[in-house]
Amino acid sequence: xxxxxxxxxxxxxxxxxxxxxxxxxxxxxxxxxxxxxxxxxxxxxxxxxxxxxxxxxxxxxxxxxxxxxxxxxxxxxxxxxxxxxxxxxxxxxxxxxxxxxxxxxxxxxxxxxxxxxxxxxxxxxxxxxxxxxxxxxxxxxxxxxxxxxxxxxxxxxxxxxxxxxxxxxxxxxxxxxxxxxxxxxxxxxxxxxxxxxxxxxxxxxxxxxxxxxxxxxxxxxxxxxxxxxxxxxxxxxxxxxxxxxxxxxxxxxxxxxxxxxxxxxxxxxxxxxxxxxxxxxxxxxxxxxxxxxxxxxxxxxxxxxxxxxxxxxxxxxxxxxxxxxxxxxxxxxxxxxxxxxxxxxxxxxxxxxxxxxxxxxxxxxxxxxxxxxxxxxxxxxxxxxxxxxxxxxxxxxxxxxxxxxxx
Length: 407
Fold this sequence. Notes:
Blueprint: E1 2-4, E2 11-14, H1 33-46, E3 72-74, H2 84-91, H3 108-125, H4 135-144, E4 163-167, H5 177-181, E5 187-189, E6 198-200, H6 210-214, E7 220-224, E8 233-238, E9 250-254, E10 260-270, E11 279-284, E12 295-297, E13 320-322, E14 327-328, H7 329-337, H8 343-350, H9 363-372, H10 394-398
Antiparallel strand pairs: 1-2, 1-3, 4-7, 5-6, 7-8, 8-11, 9-10, 9-12, 10-11, 13-14
């Protein structure tokens, strides 16, 4: 989980929760998926510093707030939207609010911005005195959620300036911080001001390196011939916080595809205030290599060697397909061979799609087993989907909806 500062865009807190559970098969007590999620989530929430003093100090011009400066929580849930509850609520005429991965799998910037819109809607419906959501916010949200556009081949720039940026954005994506941060406004966007690809006008550059530090894709470098035309200095971004890069050491420089270019001397490493946790590493290069250098490699090259590609084959019978209910591929394969063509029948007989994830994880794997068995998916009836649920004791309903009340 990450907590972002909505004013500066900086990460003010982040946490990771790990949980290890063991199962004794002899006792036949299964570890439920919802129990693991609940345990990890509770451990993570307990670590959040709700006291203002526990978070980073706000910028000097921003007065201290009595509550943490949190605008949105970003919780990554994978590649499947968790929108079941929302659709159920809308179907019953309930007021429902949805943002982030629950609405659509998109960029993190779209998730946090959509959260701000929904937060205003919730506050408004609660009767709080908050402004209306500006119309241009909805347009901006759609732009941020836009799918990547055309991809072009990257070419090294040609410039006669003594210092200039090298931009390696080859695809149209909703991203424009390099153009907004440039103090001379010489980095512009092709076409759409957010979706277009950035380009350098070639007119003026101060070498401030702000475009390097702010690029989330580490796709900008700087070439500087001002001190020595024969030994230009190339500035590259570096974000491996657990690796130290020292001046006057030799490092391997790589191109934009990660291919090695050669060993170069580190001239300087600094952490400007505007760079958050991005370090700027300056290398002494040559005129022939300056435009090609995109980054540095600090790990053993053997670590980056590709592993052997293993062609996909049949899933072994003992592989768990339904993790919530511990249903194996062999059990599902047996049902298919016995003639089952309706996944709802498997729900009744095997309990697939009946766990806490409510069929979010296993249907695609079940469909693969059908294909492996030579069954056309057109003959298969998909499972009825249900929203993720919270278990409610039956006694709550028996007591008129009040848990703990008198029967």
